[in-house]
């Protein structure tokens, strides 16, 4: 294959629609109105005149979920596109910050969108991944220097995997995504003409390794996940990339917790916090404190877990900022609640766990279908342990509805299996009997 010619990336397109909504207000006055609107709906955003300027210049193509909720509260009935933003699907997975990858991905054209829709209709998420991942079709045939086009292909692979995982879970995506990672490492071996391209390629390949590792983790392939996270960590260390290092340690901690290695979970989370300490993102540090709390919960150390949970809540309360990594778009109030639920469940405080899981289900953005199933399964398990079988069965039904559709996650299925086992003593109750019949039928059906 001949190298594709590199062409200059188009600059940001000013957001005229958003500018018109500001009207005669100054950027400072408008940012104050945004903060007031956020307080009205219980959100915390650090909006200032600079943020307003970045939106209006087109530098911010799509806001994070907190800002989206605030803007829709301020301008009811308007979609993101009507507010002048790009669809979220066009930017999911973009790296934050100007130092690496500041130039933005061009939005997908109508032809590509049609391919994606047809792939979903005819073959589900795995086919859609193959239809839209530029690196998923076979190996790269001849050695050559890597340019901007190849790096953008790696970044697009990361974005597509994250988007599909949000909606469908890991099981149907894992094998296809692994081929993309092998091709990304082949690109690394070929080298790049410019250091800036090489830096982006290292960062993109590392993020891709983490994404594939997560698919392995969520689909129950823990040994594979551990290997992918180790590859990402090695890439981060070689490239001197603290953001990638923090992300790799974050996922390593989560895997160790799920793999019943709680002390390793604590150590990895603390290493992640050390790497992230210079990045300026309170939300990232909040998530990493939750990872540490999960390890302490696994060790049965309630005081240490409570201290980490308190730190996570305090850091989360500082609100979002421009330094927050783009991969953290899943980390909103619902995830904060869901991870706290898992900690309390590990400590045996099922009533408190159920309260947090219930809030997680209620608060979750509909885009994150997989997480709604996850929190519902957590709630079912906690309620079953509390001896509240009817509500547990109701939560289990919600999770089964999602698992019976397009969500495929062995991890969530395992949680539901545990809830079903806890509910079997209550099988004479109608709601429980219905849930168990449906659960057992889904378990027996072919994947």
From TrEMBL:
Top-level division of the source organism's lineage: Bacteria
Biased composition (Basic and acidic residues): 101-113
Region of interest (Disordered), ranges: 1-24, 89-113
Compositionally biased spans, kind Pro residues: 1-13
Signal sequence, start to end: none
Protein name: Tetratricopeptide repeat protein
